[in-house]
Amino acid sequence: MKFARYGKSYQMVIENGQDLSEVLQLDEALWGATSAPSHVFHCDPQLITALDQGAKGRVTCEDIKAAITWLLKQLPDKSKITSDFDGKLALADINAGDDSGKALTASAKYIHKELASSDASTISLAQIRSFLSTVQARALNGDGVLTAKSAGDNAAVKEILADIVAATGGTKDIDGSMGASEKELNDFLAAIPPFLEWLAQGEIPAGCDTTAIMTCGADTPALSALLQTHSAKIDKVFELSRLLAFDGRLQTKAMAPDAKVAAFDPANQDEVNAYLQALPFAPPNAESLLPLDITKINPLYQGWWQDVVNKIIKPLLGDQTTTLTPADWQKIKDLFAPYMAYLAAKKGGIVEKIPADKLRAYLANDALIAEVRKLLVMDKAVAETVRAAKEVEKLLLYRSYLIRFVNNFVCFRDLYAENSHALFECGSLVIDGRWFNVALKIDTIANHQLLAKSSQMFTLYVEVEKSPTDKMIVVVPVTSGSKGNLVAGKRGVFYDINKKDYDAKVLQVVENPVCIREAMYAPFSRLWGLIEGKIEGLSGAAEKNLQGSLNKALTPGAAPAPAPAATTPKSDSKMPGGTMLIGASVAFAALGSALAFITKTVSGMTGLQIWIGVLCAILALMLPVILIAVIKLNRQDLSSILEGCGWAINLRMRLDSKLRNQFSNFGIFPKDAVGTPRSFWLRNTLIAILIILLCAGGCHYRNVRKQQAAEREKAAQIEAEAKAKVEVIEQAKVEAEAKVAAEAKAAAAPAASAAPAASK
């Protein structure tokens, strides 16, 4: 069992039959998906039908396991099951030691015989479907339904099949025509005896005019149907009359109130009909008498009432009758009660449209029924052949596509592969100068966003117009580049997996950072948007005030605005103006102190220290933003997009830089094209290096100049110190000479005084 890294997840590598067998031992928690809607896969529809056992509308991991188990049972040589398949399956590769394998081989040989194939050693999907298409065009096509085509030239069979369809509704044949199945034949034949028995109960014996059921003779069915048309309306009149006899106040409520009469338009026929339908059959009265005079009956029912009076009431009650009492009405209903009970007890009613004589003939014609059943048996034999051919078709479908399907379910190798689409992708979108190579069909935007919002990806919801009446919505994740001009309403072109193009329009955008640069700028963009909104609000208010002042100034005769009342400013600290002034003063003082501190600090720093300080300040500001941006981008998860489409995903489908550029990329100019944009990365790099060298050289030059100045200062200081020492020495010398002179003078003075004394 081998695994590989796709994006930032590790998934199983599935390339051959041995890998398929190892899928059966793979823990379901390591599968890429455990369930997916069956309609999202763009592949042979019969493959999905075979995989979706039970037609539940979803393909599950158990369905995949069952398919793999069945395939490996029929093709035991796993080494021959690879992705490279030319569509021709050797019959020798089918398991001959298994009953199902023998049936598959026999069915394949039968298909070759029917098609008169020159090479009977292999079988292909095209051959199977060619055989099935010819079978479906036959009179007996194996679908269990007999049509007029199935009867051939037998007119009697055609006639009974037509009657069965008329009685039971029939079943649609593969060719689209209506026919009869075995069940419908049995239902038809089973309904005939009880229907004929019921029909016999209502017959009038020869020599008799009436019976207990046919109380009015042969006219009973027609008269009963006539009476039942509006008999409930008459019941309602007598019910209202009984209520009126109990409470006379109901008289005004039984008919339409005056307000309703005044409201409707007599010229509007629809309103007239609606008004009449709301009225009772006749005005109720406390005596519970229903007039036979049609002029006193609701106009909607006058024609029907005339027929009832002439055909039922007067023949039963006499021509002198002018009103109908509740007792008379009950007598009339009792007259037809046996026939109504007879109708309620009807059996085998599905065949009542067929003449009774024909039904009796069908029961007596055993040969005809046997012929129909023989055709059904022959059709059932064809059905067995078709079923066996369908099994061979399933084997070839699994052999052709199961490895690829598993690579779109157990793992998502096809999704991550370059220059190809997964089975569940719809195509690619070209918009805003970019290709977006992942597009998934969704039902509604709202339902998809319930799960997809946790993906943290920039997402487009795009409407693809295949035709004016056929539109679909796809979700497209944006994985590289930037937001650009991707906004709702922007149009582009959509290419399906067959490279057919359709018009596309962005319906909705879910904004999230696409790249690190956008994630870094996002906080500052939101801050700038807030500031911009405030500025626009202030400027809009100022503009309105200016316009108002200008309109007042230019409007002749406009009264000057009243001067605001003079108010004595208070020294209360709660005044907004005072608070703002104090706050502004404090802010300016703090700002001034900060600037003074910064200026003093910078003045004592070297150039290198200044550069390092600025760089540290930038890093202190940007490093958290960059860190948050990287975390957000790493959390973007494509699995949430799939889960919004109805998938059950096990993986966290995080994207690396390669996949981001693969799923969303810009157009590439031809190599030899002239005038295309060029890359200036070398020039920009050299400029950046030059700026760095200049900055470094400037710092070095400044340090050298500073060092030279320090050396000059030190030399001057040494020279000054030496000069000071010389001056001290000279001063000491002068002082010594002066001292010697003073001492000599002092010694000479006594000698001079002694000489005169001696001369005396």
TrEMBL record:
Region spans: Disordered: 555-574
UniProt KW Chloroplast keyword: no
Positions of transmembrane segments: 578-598, 610-631, 680-699
Segments of skewed composition (Low complexity): 555-569
Transmembrane listed as a keyword: yes
Coiled-coil residue spans: 701-739
Keywords on record: Coiled coil, Membrane, Transmembrane, Transmembrane helix
Top-level division of the source organism's lineage: Bacteria
Protein known as: Membrane protein YhdT
Species per Swiss-Prot/TrEMBL record: Oligosphaera ethanolica
